[in-house]
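Example 3.2
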Amino acid sequence: MRIDAYSPTIRRKEMDAVLTAMVQEHVGPGDQSQKLIQTAKEYLEFDYCLALRSPVNAIMTALLAMDVPEKSEILISALSPAYYANAISDLGLIPISCDVDESSGNLTVETVRQKLTSNTKALVVHHSLGLVTDTPQLMDLGLPLIEDCSRSFGAHWADKRAGSFGHFTVLGLEERDVLTAGGGALVYAMGRREGTVLRRYSDLYPEYRLPDLNAALAIVQFREAERNYAIRKEIAAAYAQTSLRTRHKTLIQNGESEYNNYTYPIVLETGFKDVRAYAAKKEVELASAFEDSVVSKRTDLVKSCPVAASLALRTVLVPLYPRLGKAQVLKVAKVLATLP
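Structure, written as tokens:
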């Protein structure tokens, strides 16, 4: 039986929560959405939050709350999701892609400084594959900062959790995020000042707000987060032992941080097609890690962001998610150890 590269972490508890919401005959934005915000606040300790239908809505709302002038430049990682560039452009702003560090796939002060101009008004930090960026250093640049912890949820930088550094933070709830609620996102402000600004956008049309079905699923995801984190850590440890036998490298978590094991990224020394075909014969799917990134969609960035372009071509994801059984983990580990 084939082992997929991705699989949303949905168990009986999540299903029961969604069914309960359906029985209440209210599937649009309502009580469950507000309950989700309260549950999230217990974990994240933010000042104010909005539950929205998609990460695109969340990024755009955060940028609007920053009130940056039209045609301002907004810096992003070239390995950020491709929709970043579209969302920024749709607001009349200019997305500027920065290159990344080769060992982690994340922004650094050096790569950001290369793209700074007098027209740069904000920075959006996306933690590549859940590996936490040195956000405190980036904050020293003095730019307003939006932090996306959709895939780094549960990770920390030193003694602070990922998502607690930005002026505004986005926590996606999409299928491939850490918390998989079938879609949606939270956008929140840690501080009171930013929270006051975000409140101005609370009077949203229902079509922008998170439906109760998704919210009900997300509530359980929050409560099961620690359990899922422990399972991910155990699986990653098994992979780490076998990956030492291969010539391929892994992306690493730099600095004083513990990785949340969102995935297990391998940077290939050989061609992706050959490696993927080999794994497929063993019934294990390997996915391109950055197929949805800005640099993968824009060939004009290859020269200006060479490291990101190279990582986008060579980085694959090994299946790692809490629903994997022991036999499946052993099967994937064997494939990992024998990659051509």
